[in-house]
Amino acid sequence: xxxxxxxxxxxxxxxxxxxxxxxxxxxxxxxxxxxxxxxxxxxxxxxxxxxxxxxxxxxxxxxxxxxxxxxxxxxxxxxxxxxxxxxxxxxxxxxxxxxxxxxxxxxx
Length: 108
Prior knowledge:
Blueprint: E1 4-11, H1 19-29, E2 36-42, H2 49-60, E3 66-70, H3 80-83, H4 96-105
Parallel strand pairs: 1-2, 2-3
């Protein structure tokens, strides 16, 4: 197992994710560090075209020991070329019954 040594989060709370923000991500990937670095882009559907194109270049030749996580509300809001280079994991919210059952098993 590899140790996570650094983490970068991009979270704009619904504002546009710009190319400058993705350039920061690219600079982060070039840091000389051992271990795994993780980049999380929350609400990646808010990346403008320039930002998506810059991210695509990074995904085409990903640096070693970098994990990039994208969260989106809909795959249709991200360029197909990006989607073709990522592993898609769909996570759905828990139902009230599932949440209640879980909390009961924890004694809450």
